[in-house]
Design brief:
The chain is of the alpha+beta class and about 400 residues long. The chain is about 20% helix and about 40% strand. α5 packs antiparallel against α6 (about 180-190).
Length: about 400
């Protein structure tokens, strides 16, 4: 009888263990609160969750509130968390059908606008340029920053208004008879004007723009041109990821160096993550992440020890001030962070004054990871000092990531 009871309790204990929900513990090592920060679970961790729940599961916080999540192209599980300073927060995986989450991070290829790829999250938007633009001869080497002042997606609507064929035809007709009316109509649909949700007024040109990286030879930047091919890998709700492959570059005597960029933007952050690889490069080569300086300015910070650069663009009388910045994780050793100004001749050619650069080394066969992004004085960063604090904090968070465990 005792043996039978013992087997009963053992079976009951096993059943309780089997039915227990999976718990995800997120630990914050810093003396600062971490709010609305996206974390990743590894493919192995995701597999263990799917082995228990299949594809029908929810993630809930301590109050039982459902949390949005996304399964990424590389088999990771991502979701936003909030964790207090030097503490841990537990999230629970339970069986159930997840609701449809609102898209926050997303992007698109725009062949109707010379092959632009533009993307955004709830804070900021960006653009990079494609082969159709390169074919025109226009030089635009770096990332473009688009401001926004609302949390929902706006980029696709901006392109639609700007490029609507019927509106463009009407503008063309008006130019023949009423240039003023044509100009007013064009301005009313242009994304270069703020119609209540932000605008595009950042100038890129033949520079590194808002945070592009480039190899260097003899202290000169080897500017990448427009991407050759693209593949959108993730498109929301919480992460946008695109793979970009570039035409061969000439680096020293090697004319077949091929750059691949894996770029992603998560919800809730001002910064993109970029992972770079260069094929056919045979020796360690300096690499610079740059932000264009549009006018002579000392409104920037460049700190090689802490691993970041930050810059405040000149103030526009109507549109305010755009900010840009980049973080190079300390594991990759940032050698220099400084402003480098163009010669007088190069200033005329590039229509800019120089770059704030973060300079490291790229070792062939290894990936080079960094972060870049932007902000706006009309959406969260009233002063350059606010932006500089954000970048300092971002660098600290990147170098001290949240840790995630499951049980």
């Amino acid at each position: 009888m005792k043996k039978i009871l013992g087997l009963f309790f053992l079976a009951a204990a096993f059943a309780c263990t089997e039915s227990k929900n999976v718990e995800i513990t997120v630990n914050n090592p810093l003396e600062m609160n971490r709010e609305n920060e996206v974390v990743e679970l590894s493919p192995d961790a995701l597999s263990s969750i799917q082995a228990k729940y299949g594809d029908q599961f929810l993630i809930t916080d301590a109050k039982g509130t459902e949390i949005a999540y996304q399964l990424t192209y590389d088999n990771k599980l991502i979701f936003p968390v909030s964790v207090g300073a030097k503490s841990s927060t537990v999230y629970t995986v339970v069986s159930g059908t997840p609701k449809a989450y609102s898209t926050i991070s997303c992007g698109k290829f725009y062949p109707e606008r010379v092959d632009d790829i533009a993307w955004e999250n709830d804070r900021v938007a960006f653009r990079t340029y494609g082969p159709a633009l390169q074919a025109t001869g226009e030089r635009a080497f770096g990332y473009d920053i688009w401001t926004k002042s609302v949390s929902h997606p706006v980029v696709e609507a901006r392109y639609h208004k700007e490029l609507n064929p019927e509106t463009r035809a009407k503008i063309a007709e008006l130019r023949k008879t009423d240039p003023k009316a044509a100009r007013e109509l064009a301005n009313s649909v242009s994304y270069h004007f703020d119609h209540g949700d932000g605008l595009d007024y950042y100038s890129v040109g033949p520079t590194l723009g808002g945070g592009t990286s480039a190899l260097m030879t003899d202290d000169s930047i080897v500017y990448p041109y427009c991407y050759k091919t693209y593949e959108i890998l993730d498109n929301g709700p919480l992460r946008f990821t695109v793979k970009l492959v570039y035409n061969p570059l000439t680096v020293k005597e090697n004319d077949n160096v091929i750059e691949t960029r894996l770029l992603s933007l998560d919800a809730g952050t001002q910064l993109n993550k970029v992972v770079l690889n260069y094929e056919n490069l045979t020796e360690t080569t300096p690499i610079a992440t740059g932000i264009v300086i549009h006018e002579p300015s000392d409104v920037y910070q460049a700190d090689a020890t802490k691993g970041y650069i930050a810059y405040a663009d000149p103030i526009h009388p109507e549109n305010g001030q755009i900010y840009a910045g980049a973080v190079v994780p300390q594991i990759q050793t940032l050698k220099e962070a400084k402003a480098v100004y163009f010669s007088e001749e190069e200033k005329k050619d590039r229509k800019a004054n120089g770059h704030v650069l973060a300079i490291s080394d790229y070792t062939p066969g290894n990936a080079y990871t960094y972060y870049f992004g932007g902000g706006w004085s009309k959406w969260g960063f009233a002063t350059p000092e606010d932006w500089f604090v954000y970048m300092q904090t971002a660098a600290e968070k990147i170098n001290n990531p949240l840790t995630v465990t499951i049980q």
